[in-house]
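Consider the following input, taken from an annotated entry for Tripartite ATP-independent transporter DctM subunit (Pseudacidovorax intermedius).
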Amino acid sequence: MEFITANFAPIMFAGLICFLLLGFPVAFSLGACGLTFGIIGIELGVFQSSVMAWLPQRLIGIMANDTLLAVPFFTLMGLILERSGMAEDLLDTVGQVFGPMRGGLALAVVFVGALLAATTGVVAASVISMGLISLPIMLRYGYDRRFSSGVIAASGTLAQIIPPSLVLIIMADQLGKSVGDMYKGAFVPAFMLVGCYVLYVAFLAIFRPASVPALPAEARIYREPDGSGGYRSLLVLMVISFVVSVLVARHLTDVHSWWSGQTVTSVATDEKVVVAMCGGTFVALVIALLNKYLRLGLLSRLAERVTFVLIPPLLLIFLVLGTIFLGIATPTEGGAMGAIGALIMGWARGRLDMTLLKQALAATTKLGSFVMFILIGATIFSLVFQAADGPIWVEHLLASLPGGQVGFLVAVNLLIFFLAFFLDYFELSFIVVPLLAPVADKLGIDLIWFGVLLAMNMQTSFMHPPFGFALFFLRSVAPDKPYVDRVTRTVMQPVTTMQIYKGAIPFVLIQLVMVAVMISFPNLVTGSLDKVQSYDLKSIGDQMRESLQPQGGEASPDAGYGSGEEPYGGTPAPGGDSAPAAPASPEAAPAAPDADAPASTPDDPVKAMEEALKRAQPSN
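Applying the prediction step yields:
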């Protein structure tokens, strides 16, 4: 019994592993493990029975957590957009734009995956949509089966890291940080990962062109009467949009200064990018609308198609992320606006009906319930684990690793990488992250950087052969038997499970490279965050003492707090050596301030403190 009492925390953690290996659902495994070891701990005297009395308050706190409301809102937004046909339109249009170049269909999948990630935020919806739409087309025109499977699965998992990602919301809640800061921190690394995917496609297009052929001429449907592709007007429209974006970005500080009435010298990079792109896309949409309804004939069919398909979801993304980055709306309010915007877009497309709405609401309810039950189970487990001094055991285990911060980060990311073979990101966020966060904080690691780093690593949990969920989603829609292509009428061979696994490996390696880059260059995350202002406390103290001096001349050097004498005739300040003095008599009290005395010296200490804080200059 003494051994169990002395090693209660590690035995409890091992018990959780046993519960999970028995095949019980994670939420119930967490709750059952917490309650079981809670009873054992009380009986052995490891902690008091009053510990379990804290549980109802913790569960009520979960229900009152406003941050978690963003999860169902963003889920509903994504499901409405996905089921209203947005994915099909995006893949068809972007595929036509990039089709004439080698690897064009793969580039379309990557870019559409990023767009779906920024709108749906749900991996399953993105992978299944692109698997159903893009995979048959890529197979039809001779794309390598392994590469096609890998690029679809990897692009679908971008929903893990590109805001508004659900895993970033959960990560912010578990780390006690702002969701908006987590989104800002993930902004640059997420699009760097998209750039890495693009570079990999370009590498194959140069060195293995047979595996990524161009779309044949007969497959390009948006052509002009003269037979041209219509790229000239699309390029002109893109140039106009780009110029407007640059002008908006360059003069954004002036706009902020005019809006706030104060001089603004700098604007955060993520905010500048989002607002600038919003301005550029809005101008492109206005030009396309004028061209269509005034019959100006300025734009080609391809340019009009691209504008009307791409701009609405882009504006929705900028509406949601822009209001969050600008501080106008909280992530929960941004998710609510996104859900309303998705409903409006579905209605405008004529594809929103009660059947679609019921399906989306039912799926949202299931996911929300899933998250809530896991969180309740994790709360029960963490309550008992903390009462048994489990965090201290974890801290001693991890803080003693060689290499300091770098050694800790390498060990933690290796742990997350291997746990991701068996657990998904919800389970990792609720079980492992609360154990690691206190240790990271004590080592001086920025928790926003730490959270984005773990989110990037957890993204590989969807890509790990043989347990990656994205691979399972793709397997469910990929052809597993020979079939006849509906366009070419030729017999197509199936996509095997091993081909899907092999295709995922290069993209898992790319993600791990990004993890290493983020460890080496933390400024990729922290550089997007607002600078924390620090104040010179000595200067504030000097100004407060100056403001609190009695009127009628300068105070003597020995007067004031900490000198051993009472400042106004009362009890001496702490640290003085003199005995307590009797209360000052009315005659000895300071004279009332003269009516003509300067108004800048307040007689209220609170007001003096406020004025001193206003005069203090922040130093970054």
